[in-house]
Design a protein that fits this description.
Helices cover 31% and strands 21% of the residues. It has seven helices and 13 strands. The strands form three sheets. A six-stranded mixed beta sheet has the order 5-6-9-10-12-11, with helices on one face. A five-stranded mixed beta sheet has the order 4-3-2-1-13. Strands 7-8 form a two-stranded antiparallel ribbon. The N and C termini lie close together (9 Å). Bound molecules: fe (ii) ion (2 copies). Residues 8, 10, 54, 83, 211, 213 line the site of one fe (ii) ion (FE2).
């Protein structure tokens, strides 16, 4: 049994929407086929594949149906976290959605999924992404403080959702945790955040995140070990559509 992850599939089998990168950048050419091929090589029926948000460009269920079918047909057990583009996923209806998608995939938020003696927990997360103001040498000289205040509220709500999952796992006897976020755990300043603090407090072994895609964004947040936690970026174009082995 192995655990794999990748994020930001941005499927659009039924939606006309696409990002500019998806139209121009070679890495996105037939990315759906590349990913299926790579999953086929790596992932067996007992393995678990966590898709770390931004699954579909569809704006509602109807526009996501084919994207859901694509995900359900991938090998292994599929677990999804919520991305900022996942309009089909009303955060307050996660339990109801899990009933609807039962047997196809599992939505990870305010709950946990067992993986051996590990509990997998996750939420969308959030980070303040600017605007940052640069000086003449390109160094950060300041940022939009009003936008930062707004971001703090969203971070608080997402941190609560993450804690809810961790507490449920802890109450069920789990002591080993892997955290999945869609947003990076910190912004480009890479200071501690609610999410890095939670990861350290619960001694999570790893924090896996996506959202940073396009080459200029890959190094926006922490990668590698920090204060005993391993941070990994798994956005699809960064991994060139090869799922990353987490455990
Ligand atoms: Fe994305
Ligand atoms: Fe995103």
């Amino acid at each position: 049994m192995s655990l794999y992850a990748l994020g930001d599939l941005h499927l659009h089998f039924q939606s006309e929407l696409k990002s500019r990168a998806q139209m121009k950048d070679r890495v996105w050419k037939n990315h759906e086929e590349k990913f299926v091929k790579n999953c086929g090589k790596l992932i067996g029926p007992d393995d678990v594949l966590v898709l770390v948000g931004d699954h579909s460009w569809g704006r509602n269920f109807g526009e996501c149906e084919k994207d859901f079918e694509y995900i359900a047909a991938l090998p292994g057990k599929k677990i999804l976290t919520r991305g900022n583009h996942d309009m089909f996923w009303d955060a307050k209806r996660t339990a109801a959605l899990n009933e609807r998608f039962g047997g196809k995939f599992f939505l990870l938020q305010s709950n946990y999924a067992a993986y051996g003696d590990y509990a997998l927990v996750g939420t969308k997360g959030f980070t303040f992404e600017g605007p940052f103001y640069l000086d003449g040498r390109g160094r950060i000289a300041g940022w939009d403080e009003k936008a930062e205040k707004h971001a703090e509220k969203l971070v608080e709500r997402e941190a609560e959702r993450l804690m809810e999952g961790l507490e449920k796992a802890r109450a069920a006897g789990y002591r080993k945790y892997i955290i999945f976020l869609h947003y990076p755990p910190t912004n480009i300043l890479e200071k501690d955040s609610a999410f890095t603090k939670i990861a350290e407090e619960y001694r999570a072994e790893q924090v896996v995140y996506a959202h940073c895609h396009g080459e200029s964004r890959f190094y926006d947040s922490i990668m590698g070990e920090k204060n005993g936690v391993i941070y990994r970026l798994v956005s699809g174009d960064f991994l060139r559509w090869m799922p990353e082995k987490i455990l």
